[in-house]
Amino acid sequence: MAFVICALLIVAAAALLINIAVRDRLRQQRVMQRLEGEKTGPGKFDTWMRAVGNTKFGQRSVSMDSETEVLLNRVGWRTANQRALFAAFQVATPVAFAGLVFLGHELFFPRSGNLLVVMLCALVLGYLIPKRMLAYVAKKRQQEISVEISTFIPLLRILFESGMAVEQALRVLSLEARQLLPVLTGELRVVLARVDSGLELGQELSKTASLLDVDEFNDTCVILLQLIQQGGGAMKSLQALKALLDDRRAARLEEYISKMSAKMSVVMMVFLFPALMMVLAGPSFIAISRAFGS
């Protein structure tokens, strides 16, 4: 019991020191915001998490892993504050897991001698969970973009046929199609904001396509670059790309249906076949057992 109390006091002291360091960092950020004339920032918890992520250890936890940076780009978290927020989550999760495991071990299994191994496993698990969650969100966002492209291309064709240029058509879609294409229009707004700051539209489209890594969006950006450079002659390419995307979608649906039918056949074999055998072969087995019994 004394060991548990000492451990809790050590954890409380460490939390106090971390809180003091974070408050100092927050004071520095508030001073810089007031000097730069910025408005009031986010809430206290959000600000505290960002302050933890802005520490050297938090920044190294993200920068030392290239896969994490790629996943953050695919999710759309490209600003420094968003990366700091994820870094704080990645740093705090292993510590929280290890603390919960330590408390559970001391309260429920005080005589067990595998505390170090269990805490090490908790640290590893807590470090991997944020990254796996980020990978799941990135994959889901890529799928959403892939689905939205099939609606994005016909809208582009309509705007091009009405006489709009590439940049003008993209601006109209980024403003008018927010509810229809929420993910894709968000990326377009980021691209157009960079174009307004003086960058080239073609380069920003290529950069965004490489960051998102969606085949359908990559093909669409190639055609848009052709329109920007040549000024026309890509309408047939858009039509052919739309037909190709429809064929891919139909093939994916057929594959999904075939897999689902295979799974349903397994379920039928497991649950329906024994009942069918009992109904059909049950009377014969009963008759045979009675014959042998008599």
UniProtKB/TrEMBL annotation:
The chain crosses the membrane at residues 6-22, 84-105, 111-130, 266-288. It is a multi-pass membrane protein. It is found in: Cell membrane. GO terms for cellular component: plasma membrane. The keyword Membrane applies. Residues 152-280 form the Type II secretion system protein GspF domain. Its main location: membrane. It holds the Pfam family T2SSF. Keywords: Cell membrane, Membrane, Transmembrane, Transmembrane helix. PANTHER family: INTEGRAL MEMBRANE PROTEIN-RELATED, PILUS ASSEMBLE PROTEIN. This is Type II secretion system protein F. It comes from Pseudomonas helleri.
